[in-house]
Amino acid sequence: MSGRDIISIAKTGSVHASGHPSHPGAAQARIPRGSKRPRASPTRELAQQVEEVGREYCRDMNLSLACIFGGAARGHQARELSRGVDVIIATPGRLLDFLENNTTNLRRCTYLVLDEADRMLDMGFEPQIRKIVSQVRPDRQTLMFSATWPKDVRAMAADFQKDAAFLNVGSLELAANHNITQKIEILDESAKDRRLMELLSDILRQPEPKTIIFVDTKRKADELTYTMRRDRIPALCIHGDKKQNERDWVLNEFRHGRTPILLATDVAARGLVPLFVFERK
């Protein structure tokens, strides 16, 4: 709240944006509607998660919010930005696209959030992030949230921030989550499908059978989903080849327990586990 840059390393994080008078750039922190100069940004399902929570805060504070990401229609997103918004939640690629075609700009952005910084770098977004940050005023307040603290995240923090406060919850070493019971079975490739069906048979007899199955490829996700549904196992899958409206529908079916088995590739599943852990609390 004093306006300092922050680096926060923890298993989970949150984003908060408010035009606070103690921030040196706060004179222009509250951006008038219609100015087409947004204020804040985080990496498709993850953006929607943050939007779901952020809209409640923005409603109470009378702030406008836009969530922009690839895979969805551009027209509606562009119109929201053109009208002017106080807060933007965005994936890097789509935001950079709107900046490059002058749909919006970040010249009056005083508050920048990079959520899931390590994941964005893992997914190859560093060039886009650097282009976006280069368009934000230098007297901004920059907050970075990350689950891990590798060398590339440290380098980005050094380039983007000044005299940042460092907040750490837990160990900086990459380690398994101690709140999760983990069981590992080493199997031949040919035995995996049969063993998976045995496990699912046990899981589906439980009162709350919600299960996420991670697979390596989009093809494997489709094949397993077809096999399960053929055997009347209530499963759906999500991966990068699915259209946005289908991804949204699948997640909604899983969230409400109508389809308790979700198959996902690693990239498509980013942000899913925190969502459902959060809901169960």
From TrEMBL:
InterPro entries: DEAD/DEAH_box_helicase_dom (IPR011545), Helicase_ATP-bd (IPR014001), Helicase_C-like (IPR001650), P-loop_NTPase (IPR027417), RNA-helicase_DEAD-box_CS (IPR000629). Residues 12-44 are annotated as: Disordered. It is an enzyme of class 3 (hydrolase). Signal peptide: none annotated. Pfam families: DEAD, Helicase_C. Residues 41-167 form the Helicase ATP-binding domain. Its EC number is 3.6.4.13. The keyword Nucleotide-binding applies. One of its GO terms (cellular component) is P granule. Keywords: ATP-binding, Helicase, Hydrolase, Nucleotide-binding. Residues 179-281 form the Helicase C-terminal domain. One of its GO terms (molecular function) is nucleic acid binding. It comes from the Eukaryota. PANTHER family: ATP-DEPENDENT RNA HELICASE DBP3. This is RNA helicase. The lineage of its organism: Eukaryota, Metazoa, Ecdysozoa, Nematoda, Chromadorea.
